[in-house]
Amino acid sequence: MDPVVALCKRRGFVFPASEIYGGIANTYDYGHYGVLLKRNVVDAWWRAMLEERDDVVALDSAIIQHPRTWEASGHLAGFTDPLIDCRTCKRRFRADHLAESACGTRPSKRAGEDPACELTEAREFNLMFETSIGPVKDAGSTVFLRPETAQGIFLNFKNVLQFARRKPPFGIAQVGKSFRNEITPGNFIFRTLEFEQMEMEFFVPPAEAGEWYEHWMRERFDWYTRYGIRPGKLRLRPHEPDELSHYSSATADVEYEFPIGWSELEGIANRGDFDLTQHANASGEKLEYFDQQTKERYVPHVIEPAAGVGRSVLAFLCDAYEEETLEQGETRTVLRLHPALAPVKVAVLPLVKKDGQPEVAREIVAALRGRMSVEYDEGGSIGKRYRRQDEIGTPYGVTVDHQTLEDRTVTVRDRDSLAQERLPIDGLAEVLDARLRADWTSPKCARAS
Ligand code: ATP
Q: First CA to last CA across the chain, in angstroms?
């Protein structure tokens, strides 16, 4: 993971939060290219949910909901991790992660491995962040920052049914921040205290739950490979019966082989009618569907694909990262990101900062702008500028040189193959647009096979 973390810092994707104060646990800020990459990942998710199908609608619910939400959902009583303290090194561990946790003493071993380790019994620790409403903090003012976006969707089930005129099967999708007071230090942006989720609750007639569960497992697995993750690095892992949440009859994780090992990217769960029933009982509202045709009344079952934006970004970054040895023995670091995810699609680079080259380059930028994310860069040697664009994963570099001034052609450099091609400025936007939209497979796939 270290080279990816270093690149993220060096190129302004991700910074440790509050760095000038020494940082704050498990919290990161996204810089310019991080924001663009994250936005492209979220856009790709919305596209798959909304534009490429017509049975899902969007929602943006509040982060702070009525506190009874969390009573009904079971989070207040049960959204806990088993916490173990070490009296010797004062570190805290998740009991279920003990085998992978490093002990605080030196030389570092596994927690509990050293005879000096003095571990406490596990105690349950609620992961929800508490805050309060109003100037006086009393028992009635306590509220929680949502630990998942899903519950806001269940609370709006009736609204969507009525006002979006939907009938099962249909889904409600939401992207937004969630908060968890995670005990164990995460691996970079893999596990953070605040994180964005991309969640969709798909409401179905109970008899169809099994087939929709299969459908969403396939859809979500394919989404990652479509956006460039190598299939060999991805797997679907069904939960063992003892791993299942109390409400779930089946759950499978899409796992990616991160440098830290196989880890969850996204969970797909068959939640049954648990959530709607719980909220109906607690609120007194009927959260059900009446089918006019069959005259049948039922509580829909729910299939939930729940993904994390930061974790997806990390998987896309890890999968794209490569240190390549070139023919001349040089190495270059390149992010082989899917063009749809690349923060910048085209870099326009005048070879020199004079002789009319910057003016022509600016003219090209103006022609591309609005069609694709484009960056102009005239600072430093051309080699350095190419390396910088390779490291942020820019698929194409357009170089303006002395010949451009004579015949209005430019050099187009392909990030992956390093092929350079002379193309006319006229029609360049259309050519690049078509190439950026073409099917793309990571060159790392070909090498692996
Ligand atoms: P884990 O077992 O890793 O704690 P989880 O099973 O509790 O995850 P879910 O509640 O299923 O996670 O949340 C859905 C998705 O949200 C996860 O697959 C992950 O991508 C993301 N996610 C959950 N917790 C965090 C976190 N602390 N930081 C970053 N992303 C997270």
A: 23
